[in-house]
């Protein structure tokens, strides 16, 4: 009697409960799978967008490094001539115009900013990628500090040389006397020093950007 009661009453209830538990478990697993899939999809989208940003950064780093090197070399040659008591008035105006035309760094960190303000850096599952991302964009601050100092020097350049250079005549000097001014040598020396610092900082950022791009490329394979 009791066995029959179990079969007809208790067992079906246990079976119903088991079906509900299994259903809930499956639904939970499906939700987890969907969440994991969505997370992976967002991560891939972020990495692809960051690759585009990095390409722009790398190009800009290389362009700015090239410009700083050219300006540094121009100034070095003039400083060598000054140590030999040579007249540099033939090239001073051109140098001033070149230095004042220095390109500043724009930066392309929209994807990084989006990650930080939405999903957070942990959306990137690879620890090496996370570390390189943080290091690369942290160096933006280093570049910003350099450029603030360099732009201050360029402002001094402009104030000092504006009365002495015809900027609409390919850098022709108003008078060659400015080439003999001690302030000219001082400003050229300071510019060369800061240009070398800029090259060093940009090279560091370029190395990080390339390393990060290579790591992301492996993740996207």
Description:
With 221 residues, the protein is mainly α. It has one domain (40-219). The chain is built from five helices and two strands; from the N terminus they run ααααββα. The chain has helices at residues 2-83, 89-100, 110-117, 127-161, 182-219; strands spanning 165-166, 172-173. Strands 1-2 form a two-stranded antiparallel ribbon. β1 (165-166) and β2 form a beta hairpin. α1 (2-83) runs antiparallel to α3 (110-117) and α4 (127-161) runs antiparallel to α5. The chain is rod-shaped. The model has no long low-confidence stretch (mean pLDDT 87).
From the structure above, extract its key features.
single chain, mainly alpha, two-stranded antiparallel sheet
């Amino acid at each position: 009697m009791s066995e029959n009661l179990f079969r007809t009453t208790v067992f079906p209830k246990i079976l119903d409960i088991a079906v509900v538990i299994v259903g809930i478990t499956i639904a939970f697993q499906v939700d987890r799978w969907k969440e994991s899939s969505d997370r992976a999809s967002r991560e891939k989208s972020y990495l692809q967008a960051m690759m585009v940003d990095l390409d722009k950064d790398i190009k800009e780093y290389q362009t700015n490094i090239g410009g700083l090197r050219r300006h540094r070399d121009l100034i070095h040659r003039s400083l060598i001539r000054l140590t030999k008591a040579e007249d540099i008035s033939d090239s001073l105006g051109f140098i001033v115009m070149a230095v004042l035309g220095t390109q500043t760094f724009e930066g392309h960190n929209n994807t990084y900013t989006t990650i930080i303000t939405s999903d957070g850096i942990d959306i990137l599952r690879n620890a090496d990628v996370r570390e390189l991302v943080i290091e690369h964009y942290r160096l933006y601050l280093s570049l910003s500090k350099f450029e603030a100092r360099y732009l201050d020097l360029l402002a001094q350049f402009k104030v000092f040389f504006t009365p002495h250079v015809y900027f609409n005549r390919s850098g022709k000097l108003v008078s060659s006397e400015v080439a003999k001014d001690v302030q000219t040598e001082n400003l050229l020396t300071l510019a060369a020093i800061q240009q070398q610092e800029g090259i060093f900082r940009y090279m560091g950022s370029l190395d990080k950007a390339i390393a990060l791009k290579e790591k992301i490329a492996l993740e996207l394979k």
